[in-house]
Amino acid sequence: MGEQRSVAGATPHEPGGRIGAARPGVYVISGPTAVGKGTVCGRLKALHPEIFVSVSATTRNPRPGETDGSAYWFVTDEEFDRLIAEDGLLEWAVVHGTHRYGTPRRPVEEAVAAGRTVILEIDLQGARQVRGSYPMATHIFLAPPSWDELVHRLEDRGTETPEQQQRRLRTAARELEARSEFDEVVVNGELDETVDRLVQLMRL
Fold first, then answer.
1. Cα angle vertex 67, ends 63, 73, to 5°?
2. Fold of 24-202
3. Any idea which UniProt keywords this protein has (predicted)?
């Protein structure tokens, strides 16, 4: 992996209280499938390029057009095992029963030390892990305006079969029940309004 080891490697940390308003912060943005997490984070990054959006490490192979360190950090199973053993991941999971994905700790902590605001766009399982591994983070739940709108967005996306859509919707129903676990809940209705609210919360 070469330089990848220095980017995704572990680093010592000292858990403490949540980062205060006057300091750079780590913001976990989570929510159910099709709620628009990627679109919202993409707009935030475009408006505020100083934001550091975490890049996940994965054991799967690159797809055409994907470059190392941009879409993902592509690592071997052995390297992923080392990151776990050295506490080098804030969270990780097996996805679709095959490949592993995780959030490298070191780039996040280096970005915070450099005074940058950090965004982790992750699912509920990952958010729960980060609550334990990095308790200073602020957790923001993106919610749909309504259940019907969430179903419409998933169907309109057109990237899943009907069976896959139903499976995702069952997961989404469970995820919506967890909104009370988060520090803030932002309803993602109109994109610009959602981004404006997040900018206020992050004090950008």
1. 90
2. Rossmann fold (3.40.50)
3. ATP-binding, Cytoplasm, Kinase, Nucleotide-binding, Transferase
